[in-house]
Amino acid sequence: MARQKKTDLLPEGELMEETGAAGMTLGESSEGEPPTEEAETKMETISLEDSDLAVEMEKLRRQNETLVEQMEIMKEQLQKQSVPTVVQVSAETERVRFLWQAEVANENIKTFGEGGMFGRIVGKTGSFYVPKSDLARVMDAENRLFLDKRWLIVVSGLDEEEREALGVNYHDGELLDRRAFEKMVELGDELLELYPELCEGHKVMVAQRYREAFDRGSPHVTRERVTALRDMAQTAHITPNPFTSILQEMNKREAGEGEG
């Protein structure tokens, strides 16, 4: 007789129970099925990746905050460097008024005091004030030279002894006033009356301004005026005579026109 399988010998109820038990052991329903080892590995990998990304994002955020702070510090430093400290002079403070009148380019920038703390002038003319107690802070070698050349003029604020000590005790007619300085060529014959009493520095300015006006073809520069100025410069022993070259150029131009 053929040998029966072991399962044939078991009662039907026991077989179902064993099968059922085996079914639960081998796999549960889709709702309660535990993750496989491969799924757990993937989940751990994703978790690690998320963790690493969070760390990198936090690092970038901190770096960005640090960069912003550094930029703010640099901005403040640049503002401090570019904006000069300006001394505010009250009406009650004893102060000295200076006038800048110089034959420089219209774009020229001249500052007075460290960082322009007393004044910043663009072009040929302008004025500024210095507290008398701070006068030594603006009297450097360069500004003393400008005082000697009469490019820088003390308008008020010093007594006679102080003026004499600085060499700025001007005599009448030595200096061009602001109107005459700005329009010295346009003054015409009036300038001829002022010229003999001018200081050497302002006589040089007149010559420079006349030369520039002549080169531009100004109608105010006439042979009669230039000849008069040349004669006065010769009397003042100014050598070389700055007006002689203008007259020579006039002669050449007139000779060229005659030949044409």
Report on the structure:
The protein has 10 helices and 5 strands; from the N terminus they run H-H-H-E-E-E-E-H-E-H-H-H-H-H-H. With 260 residues, it is mainly α. Among the domains are: 95-166, no CATH class; 178-259, no CATH class. Strands 4-1-5 form a 3-stranded antiparallel β-sheet. A hairpin with a 6-residue loop joins strand 2 (109-112) and strand 3. Helix 9 (223-235) runs antiparallel to helix 10. The chain starts with 5 loop residues before the first helix and ends with a helix.
Walk me through the topology.
Layout (H helix, E strand, L loop, with lengths): L5 H4 L2 H15 L10 H46 L12 E7 L7 E4 L6 E4 L2 E7 L9 H9 L2 E5 L3 H7 L11 H5 L6 H6 L5 H17 L6 H13 L8 H16 L1
Antiparallel strand pairs: 1-4, 1-5, 2-3
Helix pairs in contact: 9-10
